[in-house]
Amino acid sequence: MEHQLSTNEKSLKMNNPEKILEDSRKEIDRVDNELIDLIHKRTSLGNDIVTAKIALNMDIYDEKRENIIHEKTIKIANEKILNDDTKNSIIQIMNILTSLSKTEQKKIINKK
Ligand SMILES: O=C(O)C(=O)C[C@]1(C(=O)O)C=C[C@@H](O)C=C1
Q1: Domain that residue 50 falls in
Q2: In the record, which residues are listed under signal peptide (predicted)?
């Protein structure tokens, strides 16, 4: 749970930029850790997916599914009222994640 700062803590922080920097960097480290875990988790799912695709005689690349992911990403970004720059960056990140998944799936096929 996020810690809610009291008014007293907030005014203390305002006068202490070193503390703001230190705390913000600690929080960024925590977020980065979570992101790395989530990226690893998403990429690892490629293992099961490629096994299923081989059994179903499907290609790794699925344009229809990638379009759904693209539309879903835009919908979520709009709901969260993100600005266009942030929205476009998130779309790029999602493209990187699907590419990563495809690369991993190809590696698994080549090992089989
Ligand atoms: O859902 C799939 O079929 C996947 O292989 C996963 C994934 C993705 O990363 O989301 C990757 C490649 C496909 O083109 C579509 C989606």
Answers
A1: 7-111
A2: none
